[in-house]
Specification:
- The chain is of the alpha+beta class.
- About 30% of the residues lie in helices and about 30% in strands.
- Strands 1, 2, 3, 4, 5, 6, 7, 8 and 9 form a nine-stranded mixed beta sheet that branches.
- Strand 4 and strand 5 form a beta hairpin.
- The two termini are about 15 Å apart.
């Protein structure tokens, strides 16, 4: 069976920059503070409505919930993060609108500073179209800035116009032309 590929658009946030401003529309709570372990459920819901091929592959598995749980647990394999960094964005009504999962790449330090990425980010379908991705991305970027990174390197599926726009609005620069990534 041949491996399938799809195209991703890479973005970078190069430091040093002033700490990014984060809108006050959402409050942020560490995922671990929500005791009902809703992260897996929320990520599964976001991925179910995602156009990203890697998300669709996880959701099409026999057990999507377990596949998402395995995916989230695998972040510790190649990355490092503090549990408080993974956060839910919560609106003024107390609803979780989305999540942001910033991490540090292990082995990518440069001049004593680490390289970070947004391991995943998502807005629940009923809250899309209101700019919450900007707020979540800004919060994740700020978290990494506070750790002391030399850059944040991210990518998104070439067809995800909303996320591409969010990266640009928040201040990320496109790193190169889209590239093929395995699904």
């Amino acid at each position: 069976m041949s491996q399938q590929n799809y195209f991703k658009v890479p973005f970078v946030w190069d430091e040093p920059k002033p700490l990014i401003e984060v809108s006050k529309r959402l409050t942020f709570e560490p995922v671990k503070a929500i005791r009902d372990n809703s992260l897996i459920s929320i990520v599964t819901k976001v991925m179910a409505s995602s156009m990203d091929a890697s998300h669709q592959k996880k959701i099409s598995a026999t057990s999507p919930y377990q596949e998402v749980e395995k995916y989230l647990n695998s972040a510790k394999d190649d990355c490092w993060y503090e549990d408080d960094w993974w956060q839910f964005g919560i609106n003024e009504d107390g609803d979780i609108v989305g999540f942001v999962l910033p991490v540090i790449f292990t082995g990518c330090a440069k001049q004593g500073k680490e390289e970070g990425t947004i391991y995943d980010i998502g807005v629940l379908p009923q809250f899309r179209g209101h700019g919450f991705a900007n707020d979540l991305l800004s919060q994740g970027t700020r978290t990494l800035q506070q750790v002391g990174i030399w850059r944040v390197f991210c990518d998104t599926w070439v067809g995800n116009e909303r996320m591409i726009s969010a990266f640009k609005r928040v201040g990320y620069q496109q790193y190169s032309e889209p590239w093929q990534r395995p699904i």
